[in-house]
């Protein structure tokens, strides 16, 4: 049991070394030109997404208000007033 406990520290260090090497290998693969371009593209356009959403909502609300305000008189219940 003592031998297992004594070796566990070495195994943890080996596991940490393996994890660090694997992580560095994955990062090396992700630094291709395409990956860098997509990263820059995402960095530029990600902050704009809420603005696009807000503009779409405002346009939808403006269209809805415009549609409601331009209803014919018959649709608003004024048909009985005409003689």
Automatic annotation (TrEMBL):
Keywords: Membrane, Transmembrane, Transmembrane helix. GO terms for cellular component: plasma membrane. The chain crosses the membrane at residues 48-73. One of its GO terms (molecular function) is protein-phosphocysteine-N-acetylmuramate phosphotransferase system transporter activity. InterPro entries: PTS_Sugar-Specific_Components. GO terms for biological process: phosphoenolpyruvate-dependent sugar phosphotransferase system. This is PTS system N-acetylmuramic acid transporter subunits EIIBC. It comes from Salmonella enterica subsp. arizonae. The lineage of its organism: Bacteria, Pseudomonadati, Pseudomonadota, Gammaproteobacteria, Enterobacterales. The gene is murP_2.
